[in-house]
Every structure is written in C-alpha cells, then in structure tokens.
Design goal:
The protein has 10 helices and 10 strands. With 303 residues, the protein is α/β, with parallel strands linked by helices. The relative contact order is 0.13.
Length: 303
C-alpha cells in the first residue's frame, strides 16, 4: 500500500494520537483523523499547531517522516526514525567504507538518471529532449566535466523559458520548486533510513553543515517529476491570461498539487508503480551497491 503524505495548515490545531490514529482537533472539536499506519510523511505548516510528544514518538516507531515548515511555508526541519534493520551496524560500516571509485560510479548513475528524466520531462511537456537524452548516455564515472550543470542550463531554458533562472530566493516558480524538492528530500531521507543506511554519509554532496547529504544525492533523479508538475501549474495559470507570467503563490491548492506527485505513476525496473514506492526501491538498490550485493543502482523513470 502506498503511504500518504498529509499536510496540516489550519492554525490553532492540536494534533495527537488516539487509538493508533492521528487526530486533529481545534476548539475541542475533531476536524479529522488518519490511520498512522497509512502515513509516510506528515507536514506541519503552522507555527500555531501543537503536536503531542506521544504522537511524535509513535510516528517515529512507524517510520513516518515529520516535517516542519518556516514562515515561507517551506520545509525547514525533518525528523526521521532510526532504522530497525537488524544488520544496520554492518550496513553502516559498508556505507562508511565506500571507496572513492565506488562513489564516483554511483554518482555517475545518479547524474545519468537525472538527465534522462529531464529529457523525458521535456518530451512530456511538449519540448525537445533529444539533446539531453544523448548527454545522459555519456556521463563518465564521477561526472568530471560536470555534465549535470551543462544539461541543467539547456533543460531550464527549454522547460521554463530563456528568462527563467533557478533562484531559491525568488518569488516565482522557484517557490513551488523549492517546496516540491523539500518534500522529495524528506521522503528520500525516510526511504534511506528504512534500508539501514544513514542519510549523513553522502556520495557527492559533502557540506559539513548538511545533515542529509545522501538524501540530496539520491533525490537528484527525482527532481524532474516536480519540475513537470510545476510546469503544468504555470501553464494552467497562464490559460486565458494576457501572456504575462502570473505570480505563482504557494498556497493550499498549489501545495496539494505538488504533493500529489508522490502518487504519480512511474517506471522502475520495467514495472509501473507510484513514485513513492519506487523511491524506496531506489534507495534499497543503492544500499545493495554499497554492500556489494549489486553492481548498479536503479532509479525511477518518468513516463
């Protein structure tokens, strides 16, 4: 069963556990409830929301990632459970002991998968993705020539136009991209921990102030899924307009539209499945490479 991603943005709520259910209350009235076993990610998007310690503990026990947002409604913190994997110590030793060539091979696979999905996204959005698909086929170990960045310049101009610039602080489409990427990051961190790996030990991202570099590494091939949804939202907003790009507001409707991406169908290892399910399998395939059970990691394919 696919796990649900739930966001709570109503101010003044009290969120707690009752009979294995997540219960949302306000002014002593119950607004709703969700079986905790159905949850994968819970997002708290209001500083006026009170979350009980009992619920936080129970969410961790059941592998639910708990995300808190900042004043801009962007995820700023994520709590992830410790893995209950019975051989986690062995897995962590293999992860830490990875050789540089091994890391470079995994990173090349990540970059190739990302560029290939960017190509597919362009095609799905009515753009020409041929050039990027060709680039994806010639990413060498470690990507020393930074084909990832080269492909990105082509990709963004084709997808969102020559005037678009990927700027995390801009108040335009970037706000929607930031939100989607942050949710992907939390979901990937949850999947990584479930395999017995630790998100703090990355293969490429290695900023000492980054607590989850491995999540940042492995979410790269998934970013185009968010990009495609943002492209759709932008074009829906333009329909019937005067041709100018409207201000893209991060509100309940746009956030729900972006969260729905986790349930989108993708292809993984030749099978169709929801992205959230494939995300977990992808993390497991990377673990198998790290523990030398497999030679090649697999990633979701946009369809």
């Amino acid at each position: 069963m696919i796990k649900r991603t739930v966001e709570i943005s109503t101010h003044g709520c009290y969120v707690h556990k009752k009979h294995k259910q997540l219960v949302i209350e306000k002014d002593e009235a119950t607004l709703g409830s969700v079986p905790i076993e159905d949850l994968g990610v819970l997002i708290i998007d209001s500083p006026q929301t009170t979350v009980s310690a009992g619920l936080i503990s129970y969410l961790a026990e059941h592998g639910v990632a708990l995300v808190f947002t900042d004043s801009k409604h962007l995820p700023v913190s994520v709590t992830i459970p410790f893995s209950d994997n019975s051989i986690q110590n062995k897995i962590l030793q293999d992860q830490v002991a990875m050789s540089v060539p091994q890391k470079k091979r995994i990173w090349a696979a990540v970059v190739a998968a990302k560029i290939a999905n960017q190509s597919r996204t362009l095609t799905l959005c009515g753009r020409d993705g041929t050039a990027l698909m060709e680039i994806s086929k010639r990413v060498p170990s470690g990507d020393p020539k930074n084909l990832e960045a080269y492909a990105a310049r082509i990709y963004w101009q084709k997808l969102l136009g020559p005037n678009f610039k990927r700027d995390r602080n801009a108040s335009d489409e970037n706000m929607l991209l930031n939100y989607g990427y942050a949710v992907l990051r939390a979901s990937m961190a949850r999947a990584i921990v479930a395999t017995g790996l630790h998100p703090a030990f990355g293969i490429h991202h290695n900023n000492q102030y980054n607590p989850m570099p491995l999540a940042d590494d492995l979410m790269e091939p998934l970013r185009p899924f968010i990009d495609a949804r943002v492209f759709q939202l932008v074009n829906e907003a333009l329909m019937g307009a005067d041709g100018s790009v409207p201000e893209m507001i991060l509100n309940t409707e746009t956030k729900q539209a972006i969260l729905s991406v986790l349930s989108y169908e993708c292809e993984y290892d030749g099978r169709k499945m929801p992205l959230l399910v494939a995300l977990g399998l992808s993390a497991a395939s990377v673990k198998q490479v790290m523990t030398r059970e497999s030679e090649k990691a697999s990633f979701p394919v946009a369809v």
